[in-house]
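Predict structure. Chain length: 484.
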Amino acid sequence: MPQPNILIVMTDHQRADTVLPGHPARTPHVDALARQGVTFTNSFCPSPHCCPSRATFFSGLYPSGHGVWNNICNPQALSRGLKPGVRLWSEDLAAAGYDLRYAGKWHVSVEESPCDRGWREHFVSAGAGTFHGVEWEHYRQLAEEPEPEERGEGEILRPGYGPYRLYGALEADPASHDEIVVREALAALEELGQSDQPWCLYVGLIGPHDPYLVPQRYLDLYDLEDVPLPPSYGDELTDKPGIYQRMREMRFGQLSSTEVRQAIRHFWAYCTYLDDLTGQVLAALEATGQADDTLVLYCADHGDYVGDHGLFAKGIPCFRGAYHVPAVVRWPAGVQQPGRAVDALVSLADWAPTFMELAGVAAERPMAGRSLLPFLAGEEPEGWREAVFTQCNGVELYYTQRSVMTRDWKYVFNGFDRDELYDLRHDPDELRNLAADPAYGPVVREMCGRLWAFAAEQGDTAINPYITVGLAPYGPAEAFRAGR
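Prediction complete.
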């Protein structure tokens, strides 16, 4: 089969459930992709943060392999970019004759931009030299202003930091990031439509990243009375790590239940806006006459709690909402039995070997992911994974956290506080933490074995045995116990 074109639309902070059947968010263009292709319903990112997850998408490696652990654009960065020697799939495709075009968010390195890894840049944000954050002068000026005494709607007061706005309406702005990205993508498609080379176009949107600021016409599609609180909203978090409780009590707990529902409404509306932008790109692809020869992937770097457990955005709480991401694929020339949902456990690391196989490039270097092409053909690869893993050392506050999830159980090792164990068969909303219950000791031990086996395979260095830090209930030797 000739090398197909590849069109990638990656959003930022979008939960997988917003594109799955039955969800109230209106995404007609992505729904059409799903009817014409395959939806991976159990797709997960490795970290609840943009940079490490994006580096995994482009490299096929976990953070322990590619070296990106948190936001590479500020002074709290644990690294400024990829480890020396890490190769991205874009370099392989460029070497295989692909014309690669980039429009949108990068956020993989501040030492390099996409052009250093095989791409022609149309528009790039969060590229080389980008700084995210504020300097001390900002706080000096903030101190000269009176502290707000009352919250506005959807606002969270933070003395000494300045107020934070979670949601709101705005006017459509042609100069906004995502409008620019789509215009540049349309221009790239027009050029690519005249090319004889196989091509890959990356479209990187920044929505629905908080704050959820959405044009009013999308908000008007949703009535507040139709927006329920999440099933886990009533979780008091008393059996969870203290930082989870602190995030809710200090920050998101300021919001009334009505404001929480308003925030959810704004998030859904934001997803509809992104769907409209995606529809423009898909229409332009159709106009080039290349849709049948193009694999289209709609995905996200990570998710958002969106009110789960009373939380928003993302961070150290290891709840499903921050890790479960969309993955919808259409490829008329390669998808068998379109309209299927695949419930296999899938990782963002799987896309690197998938794209390389599409391009006819042998994946001769070690990767954490495996090609998904057999699933597109209606087959299930032999020995597919039975668990997915996460690696997190914090966002800008540092914590050692690793997790493993099977279809039945989820175990979270929190080196900074109490661990977590959830029975996903009976508690899919992760409400009851069973980690401290002696009755589940054998489950904890088995999950620790899985976790450490993956850590050993991936060269994870979170194994220090010193007495004050070697705090897992069962340590790294569990990876090598008989029967593993």
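Summary: The chain has twelve helices and 16 strands.
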